[in-house]
Model the fold of this input.
Amino acid sequence: MDKMKAIHKSRLRRLGAAALVIATGTILRLAGYEAGLPYWFVKYGGSLLWGVMVYLLVTVIVPGRPRLQVLLSTVIAVTVELIRLYHTPWLDEFRLTLAGALLLGRIFSVWNIVAYIAGITVAAVADHALRTRHQTT
Done:
C-alpha cells in the first residue's frame, strides 16, 4: 500500500511540474518577444519546455520505467513534429488557433526536434538525479 501511495504522490508532483512547465512555456511564447527576449530563446526555449512537458506527462502515465519513458517521449515529440508535414483544411485551421499553435505548431523544423530531445534529455537527467537523491535519503 505504501508503494501505491508513493506512486500516486509522484504522479501528482509530476502533474504539478508539468502544469508549471506549461504555464512557463505559454508565457514565454506569448510574452517573450514583447519582453525583448531574443528570437532563438523564445522559439527554442518554448520547444525545449514542450519536450520537458511531454516527458513529465509520459512519466505520469508510465511510472517507474525510465528507458521506456524517454523512448515514448521521443517518439511522441518526433511524431508531433512530423505531423506538421501533413496538411488538411481542418488541421491547418486548428493550427491557426492558439491551442493548435501551442500543441501542434505550424511549420516543420528539424531544429524543433533537436530542442524537444534536449528538453526530454534534461528532464530525464534531472528526474534520475532526483530519484537517486530521494532513494539515498
About this structure: The CA atoms of residues 3 and 43 lie 40 Å apart.
